[in-house]
């Protein structure tokens, strides 16, 4: 192994995916393993924290062994261990944090604490291509929806965020009402492909000039529920693909237009998408189309779908600049369920 290379083992257990990955120099994935708990939680229609913690506990060690084996390395080849210490479910986060601390102590490796949200941004660094700054980053996941201005790598200013539900939460809640299953985002994404996005005119929450970079999705969710109730009352058949496509169109249009406005106002050179909802095919297509019309000089970047949703490669990528600056955590590191970006 080249002595110059920095190999970081990343661990991720903040919600319902147990993940371990080895990344070289913050950009090259040597292995990235994700054990999804979707099957376990789907019958409850959402994540059950106690079940999540137990699953992390049984999966984390075998996943670490597999991640090292797949990367073709041993603990002795690693330069650091990185772990997501928040935000997320406290019991779930603690599994990753305790495991990382134990390994760092036993293997005498530096420990790096990573903010899960910041790691979603770093998913765009995996792949190695340079990003032109300033950049506007739309981060849309199951727990967060935020527009960030990134003047240079490592700096992030929040331009706006959701006032109620996160975008992924809206997808999941609407899917539950439609009895599609959990998680709802990918199911609605698929169903919507057969529907007409203009069939139903659902409301768009633009929130005026002051809230131009903020989001609100709870009104849209209520409008979908009301539409279903009314149809049932008058015994009208509901076209599910049309409903899914119209809901998705209303949500995506707001994400796209606000991101473009932010890019225009800030003179951004790049628009970055990250978080689970960045895997949405309609969001990707519509953002690309509108951006090339409105701001053709601005380039669009998003990670491959498997790096949009929770994974550990993004944790190791986010840890790399910290490693460079020797920003290490102590063995008293704790989990912070409400950790914010700044
Ligand atoms: O980033 P993530 O894996 O976990 C959090 O940090 O929250 O995001 C999960 C969210 C879920 O709400 C899921 O429904 C949504 O991302 N999601 C999608 C798609 N794939 C995942 N939403 C819309 N379309 C998709 N294709
Ligand atoms: Zn996430």
The overall number of domains is 2
Bound ligand species: 5'-O-[(R)-(carboxyoxy)(hydroxy)phosphoryl]adenosine, zinc ion
Instruction: Kindly report the oligomeric state of this protein.
Output: single chain
CATH architecture verdict of the largest domain: 2-Layer Sandwich
Q: In what range is the share of β-strand residues?
A: 15-25%
The major beta sheet can be summarized as: 5 strands, mixed
Shape: globular
- How many beta-strand runs? 10
Mean pLDDT across the residues is: 95
Count, helices:
11
Uncertain stretches of 5 or more adjacent residues: none
Order of helices and strands: EEEHHEHEHEEEHHHHEHEHH
CATH evolutionary superfamily of the largest domain = ATPase, nucleotide binding domain
| CATH topology-level name of the largest domain | Nucleotidyltransferase, domain 5
Strand order of the largest sheet: 3-2-1-4-5
